């Protein structure tokens, strides 16, 4: 059983189990189009969860991703409506996302404020700024050339899924293969030890929030393109889905422990549950309750295993 | 008199035997020392005795009656109590609240209110008994470590204690506090309490213990009368081989000055500090806890910035703004508290070893995994660190092996100046010896070593020179024929006379 624990196969097993159950109970589930749909539906949350993994590995948390997503989407949409090239508007939005993340990071690393409080504040702040900027109104009439980001396909696979896959591999390589990744884990494991070992802990702390902010902006662009609208309420509550995916994937909220592979599996579990409950025509009232239960069960199973040493 | 017997105790974890037939007999009214290297099974034995673990086989007899403890509450009811090495007090609560927790029964009314007056009175009595002149309402966070130890004893005395286990009680105490503790132990003895005393400080055992049981590799080696046994014999029994010289100081010819502190001050060091360390020299810093020793180390290692004075490294004036800058100049600090400041406990040995030198084994920012593994294995071999493999989490290692990991991680930097803060605290004799050899090796290679130690024999035994600190100032220097316990104590004690 040690390899089972070592590679933390619990979440994967849970995902496989869910897929098996749904394959049996629903005929539509195990079809190429439906599975691609699951991946597409998961991509926004997966992107947020990838950023969230960086933050949580340092024992932080980023509650502001949903609001960052909304703010950057609104800005990009307004610029595009005003005639700015979509590429340019998109890149600018990513930069704004990075700045928003840096703002969180500086408050956490240099002002030594608790990440939960800081991002709780900026969550409300960024949402408020979005509402001021949009006057509470959705932004329509985006240029057609922006349509492809959320709705196009390459080799029959939706563009957002490609983007998520690429981001996943980059982030995975950074976290598990680079010196920077090692240092991020070390900071989460014990910031003081890392500092004494010569790690510039503060810079890395800022960096993880920047990563989270940029990925939130990227997720926002995809969402806006898919809906062809930038809603001021977009991304409301998304931070919790992202955190759920990270935790389901076995990452410790206390930092220093966890993998990006786990996070992706966590995001997929959430995506499959949503999709499956829809296919099984479960009423939306029940959906949340079922989802909550599945999350609790998954976490309990995982906890049992990690305590068993 | 009561009598506690543990017979042929066996205990293993997931197939690995930790205790293999251990016998231990303790009489009421004696101080019975338990001696053994880290990993010999002392803690496991005590956890078995107190019902935290259940023995796989063997029996525990109290006055000849077999006992079956399922939890620490059972053993406490039987009159066996333990004071853990890491004091288990709630520092956010007051003394009386700490005494209450776990012993609520006599202090609660039928509906669950606390009888605060009764609690306060009883707390006052207990504090008087252990000789702690503090009010029951004092928050534990305001107490020093020695005082906390006394609160722990008071807590243990609340129940009718017949056998008291003390795990490394003096590890963090000053000499004065230690003397206070020993008086307390004598009182307990006279009251017929049997004390199981765990400590690595042999000198201490000769001062306080009546008998000693030596454990090695989960087996009882023997029980001896302290009065009839030689120190060397005990060490040999414990380590399993003879240790020639406990403090193997090597003679060397010190070279140029590598570190010079010229009236430095930091926000923690208000009085200017001056000292020098030369290449090929081990310089000790002695003094009471709180005398400012660690603060000097922090200044040298770039944790606290200089607010005044000059620090010169090989004659060049330096100003470190972070540990990183100190490391870049070849100055490494082995911190006092390896669990909080030295190691990332849940991480693999390999990752801990690699952390300060990550950048040396990278290509385009990517860690060179194979080189890192080879690097870790090499250091594990060089310092003979006992591990299953390089991927074992350090939390599972014994104290001595953990300390070796800390040492290795800094030695890998090849520092010019190594600052050691309590390098062998909580480390067993065998590992201590290895660490001393490492220090000598560095010395022979012309490195400078500055060692802070509260272990006086170690300080005088390993250092070429010793600075004595008191109240945040250097008050004297010992060298040559001056390197003597009495001279040292005189320097340290002078302040206490003035203070009191």
Quick rundown:
The complex is a heterodimer of chains A (309) and B (500). With 309 residues, chain A is mainly α.
Kindly describe this structure.
- The complex is a heterodimer of chains A (309) and B (500).
- Helix content of chain A is 75%, strand content 1%.
- Chain A has a single domain (42-307), classed as Orthogonal Bundle (ABC transporter involved in vitamin B12 uptake, BtuC).
- In chain A, strand 1 and strand 2 form a beta hairpin.
- The longest helix of chain A has 27 residues, at 201-227.
- Chain A is globular and about 55 Å long.
- Chain A has helices at 2-6, 10-25, 32-57, 65-81, 86-109, 115-134, 147-151, 159-177, 179-189, 191-196, 201-227, 238-248, 260-279, 284-307; strands at residues 153-154, 157-158.
- Chain B is α/β, with parallel strands linked by helices and 500 residues long.
- Chain B has two domains: 3-239, 3-Layer(aba) Sandwich (Rossmann fold); 257-499, Rossmann fold, CATH 3.40.50.
- Chain B has a six-stranded mixed beta sheet, with helices on both faces. In chain B, strands 16-19-20-13-21-22 form a six-stranded mixed beta sheet, sandwiched between helices.
- In chain B, strand 1 (3-13) and strand 2 form a beta hairpin.
- Chain B is globular.
- Chain B starts with a strand and ends with a helix.
- Classes of the chains: A mainly alpha (309), B alpha/beta (500).
- Chain A binds chain B through residues 173, 177-183, 185-186, 189-190, 192-200, 256-257, and chain B through 301, 303, 322-324, 327-328, 333, 335, 340-347, 351, 354-356, 358-359, 362, 365-367, 409.
- Chain B: Residues 4-242, 252-496 form the ABC transporter domain.
- Chain B: One of its GO terms (molecular function) is ATP hydrolysis activity.
- Chain B: It is a peripheral membrane protein.
